[in-house]
Write a structure and sequence with these properties.
GO terms for molecular function: DNA-directed RNA polymerase activity; protein dimerization activity. The chain folds into two domains: 13-51, no CATH class; 54-175, DNA-directed RNA polymerase, insert domain (RNA Polymerase Alpha Subunit, Chain A, domain 2, Beta Complex). It is 14% helix and 31% strand. The chain contains three helices and twelve strands. The strands form five sheets. The chain has a four-stranded antiparallel β-sheet. Strands 1-2 form a two-stranded antiparallel sheet. The two termini are 32 Å apart.
């Protein structure tokens, strides 16, 4: 016959460390837990935060002068593969809609192109405007069209391809999770 030890210990306190909190970091403390459950719940929370929260990411791009992801664009220092890797680091928040959002980068100067150069609409907020995208080494017209969508987890470029996708539209890998790093201590 099993021995009953009493009520199951459930956390009664959840606090946020306000001293260390910022726009990109937060520390939470939940306590007390039943003996042996700290790692179980900590690891479960970590997995949920990294894989199951919705976020927004670029799913496709179109660049004047690039037909595919292995192309090079005249007067752009980086090749398209490197540009796509840089675009994967750009973080967005999409408000009040689940529809795909089309954004533009339109420049006619030489120098660095950053996420802050993206022309946003009223439904989209940019979280890291300093993110480098590419470098233009000669004054010329540069036009890039970005498609931003809401999703969960990670999708490959093949998953983001649409039927009858026009030539020149490049489906990209998308990391939708707004959380990039989680750590827990017991």
């Amino acid at each position: 016959m099993p021995v009953r030890l009493g009520a199951f210990e459930r956390p009664s306190r959840l606090t946020k460390d306000e001293e260390t909190a910022s726009d990109t970091y937060a520390k939470f403390v939940a306590e007390p837990f039943e003996i042996g459950y700290g790692h179980t719940i900590g690891n479960s929370m970590r997995r949920v935060l990294l894989s199951s929260l919705e976020g927004a990411a670029i799913t496709a791009i179109k660049v004047d002068g690039a037909q595919h992801e292995f192309a090079t664009v005249e007067d752009v220092v980086e090749d398209m593969a490197e540009v796509i890797l840089n675009l994967k680091k750009v973080k967005f928040v999409v408000h009040e809609t689940r529809d795909p959002q089309t954004l533009l980068i339109s420049m006619n100067k030489e120098g660095k192109v950053t996420a802050g150069d993206i022309e946003l609409n009223h439904n989209v907020t940019l979280m890291n405007p300093e993110q480098h995208i590419c470098t233009i080494d000669k004054k010329k017209k540069f036009l890039m069209e970005l498609t931003v969508q809401i999703g969960r987890g990670f999708l490959t470029g093949d998953d983001n391809k649409t039927p009858n996708q026009p030539i020149g539209v490049i489906a990209t890998d998308s990391i939708f999770s707004p959380v990039t790093r989680v750590r827990y201590d017991v």
